[in-house]
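We were asked to recover a plausible sequence for a given structure. The inputs and outputs are reproduced exactly as logged, with field labels preserved.

PROBLEM: sequence recovery
POSITIONS: 227
GIVEN STRUCTURE:
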């Protein structure tokens, strides 16, 4: 078992430094060309793979190019146009509601504050953080998705379980200049090495400082091994 550094601040900095070396090109994997497309893509990505979202939005973004396009479409039509996305019926309603909100209250522009973004249907703090960071160059916090949630706990950076509480712990220990990149680094590492059901500790660049490290062989977490 690896041993984490003396403080969570030191642990976080070492994790970031090592993952930067491992994933030098780490960045958002959703395809978009403007703020509206970014917002839509992130809403669709909830509990859905980025790859699937990119497949669907390739055609969606050709058909719907303005907030008015979403506002004027029916929920049923939008749901049909994003068929294949998880919870496509609910998300079709979100897209219509987002279009109406942006047209009716924001002069057709995607809002640039956490408070205004989280008033949009289907937009929580995680989604708003992504839009602020990549659409407005505003970094107010750390995006906590399932990879960040899992890895930050395994690495000893938090003991919390709720994303909001995890984010608060992380912003206290991760250097502010790394808040945006921290998410992408952990996502890349979670996908490549430290999966939800299997973790390849023998190939992990963080193994010696990871309190959850379980040895050199690939381990099966589906067997009930608690992490």
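RECOVERED SEQUENCE:
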């Amino acid at each position: 078992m690896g041993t984490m550094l003396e403080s969570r601040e030191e642990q976080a900095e070492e994790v970031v430094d090592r993952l930067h070396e491992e994933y030098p090109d780490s960045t958002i994997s959703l395809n978009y060309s403007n703020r509206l497309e970014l917002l839509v893509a992130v809403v669709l990505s909830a509990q859905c793979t980025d790859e699937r979202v990119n497949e669907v939005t390739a055609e969606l973004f050709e058909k719907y190019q303005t907030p008015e396009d979403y506002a004027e479409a029916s929920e049923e039509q939008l749901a049909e146009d994003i068929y294949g996305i998880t919870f496509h019926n609910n998300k079709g309603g979100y897209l219509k509601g987002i279009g109406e909100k942006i047209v009716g209250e924001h002069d057709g522009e995607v809002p640039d504050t956490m408070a205004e973004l989280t008033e949009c249907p289907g937009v929580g703090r995680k989604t708003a953080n992504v839009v602020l960071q990549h659409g407005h160059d505003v970094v107010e916090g750390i995006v906590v998705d399932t990879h960040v949630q899992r890895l930050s706990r395994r690495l000893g950076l938090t003991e919390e379980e709720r994303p909001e509480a995890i984010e608060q712990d992380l912003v206290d220990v991760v250097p502010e200049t790394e808040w945006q990149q921290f998410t992408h680094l952990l996502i890349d590492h979670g996908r490549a090495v430290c999966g939800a059901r299997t973790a390849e500790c023998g190939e992990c660049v963080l193994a010696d400082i990871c309190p959850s490290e379980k040895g050199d062989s690939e381990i099966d977490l589906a067997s009930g091994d608690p992490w």
